[in-house]
Each structure stands twice: as C-alpha cells, then as structure tokens.
Design brief:
Blueprint: H1 3-9, H2 12-54, H3 59-66, H4 76-88, H5 97-123, H6 127-159, H7 164-222
Helix pairs in contact: 2-3, 2-6, 2-7, 3-4, 4-5, 4-7, 5-7, 6-7
C-alpha cells in the first residue's frame, strides 16, 4: 500500500488523474495563500486611506493624503474619478445651473462605476479557480477510483483466480483516489467560502465609499 507500489501498479489513466489532482491542490493552495495576503493588505489599506480621506478638506487634498496608505490603489482611483468629475464641470460654466446639476451625476456615476468595477475584479481574482477545484476534484478522484477498480478486476479475471484477499488490496488502493479528491476539494471549498466572505465585505465598503463620493460631487455642484 506504499506510494511507489501504488504508482507502479496503476495504469496511465489513474496516474493522469492523480497528477491532475496534484496540480489542482497546488493551484488552490497558491491561490488561497496569495488571496489571504492580498485581502489582509487590502483591508488595512482601505481602512487607513479612508480615515485619511475624511480628514482632508477637499478631494484634491484627500487624494494626496490617501495615496501613501493606499499601496495597491483601492480607494485612490475612486477619489480620482470623483475629482475628475468635479474638474469636468468647468466645461459646463456656460450652461444654466439646472443643466450642470443634470449632467454631473451621470458623468460622476460612470467614472466611479468604472473605478469600482476594476477594484472588484481585482478582489475576485482566484475565486473561480477555488470554485472549480472544489467542484471538480471529487469527480476526478472518483474517476480514478472507478478506473482503478475496473483495472484490478480485469487483471484478476484474466488470471482466473478471484478471491476476497486478492480483491481487497487493489480495491483499497483504488479508493485512495477518492480520498485524494476529497482532500483536494475540502480546503478549496472552505477557502472559497471564507475568502469570498472577506471579498464581499471589502466590496461593500468600497461601494459605500463610491456612493459617498457621488453624494459629495452632487453637494459640491449644488453649492
């Protein structure tokens, strides 16, 4: 039942399934460790940059104050989008106040939506990998088990000697693939759920900040 004996006694299909599970496991652990670092860093940066933003008197100074704390550019693009929307209103000076008020919110909304969407995509990097590994690795392991049992039964049928003692070993070795599939899937599913919760919280925080910036743009335009 040692690994070398199992590997030598298995055929190409079982070996390929085992290699696929190994690749899936490495991918999922790399993604989980990377995302844990990314989200931990993002959580601290967003909190510090927002604190610096609310202490600044205007958007231009807020952008300068928040930049040192926003190392991965989560909040600064939103601030820059709001500042750009305010700067673009200078082109509307010849229009009436009603026209300026009517044109600013849609323009600011488009800029903020673009910046927010880019941040959300970055936060969700790797979630598809974890979901795919968690959903497919049990079936890959089951495929290896079924094929291993089929291979063992075929070999015994060819020898003409079938007994419980001769059947138990190969079947037990084939069931290793099912256990391997579950061992790959369980951490990936847990990582997807835990990290997905943290991603959702950060997305909600950034979305709320974008709404605040839109309100600031509208209030500034009215004044």
């Amino acid at each position: 039942m040692d690994f070398l004996h199992w590997w030598r006694s298995s055929d190409a299909v079982t070996q390929i399934a085992a290699l696929v599970l190994l690749v899936m496991s490495v991918m999922s652990w790399v993604v989980m460790l990377w995302k844990m670092r990314l989200l931990s860093r993002a959580s601290g940066d967003i909190a510090r940059s927002l604190a610096a933003f609310w202490q600044a008197p205007d958007l231009n100074l807020a952008r300068t104050s928040a930049s040192p704390f926003d190392r991965d550019h989560w909040t600064v693009p939103l601030i820059e989008a709001a500042a750009t929307a305010q700067e673009d209103r200078a082109q509307l000076k010849g229009q009436t106040s009603h026209a300026r008020l009517a044109s600013l919110p849609p323009h600011a909304t488009r800029l903020l939506r673009g910046a927010l969407g880019h941040a959300v995509v970055r936060l969700q990097y790797g979630q598809v990998v974890l979901a795919t590994v968690g959903a497919t690795s049990p079936f890959v392991g089951l495929l290896g088990t079924v094929w291993g049992i089929h291979h063992a039964l075929g070999a015994m049928a060819g020898s003409g000697q079938i007994s419980v003692e001769r059947l138990a070993g190969p079947v037990g070795e084939a069931l290793i693939m099912t256990a391997a599939g579950l061992a790959v899937a369980i951490p990936a599913v847990l990582g997807y759920n835990v990290l997905g919760r943290r991603v959702a919280l950060l997305e909600a925080e950034l979305e709320g900040f974008a709404h605040d910036l839109l309100a600031i743009c509208a209030d500034t335009q009215r004044s």
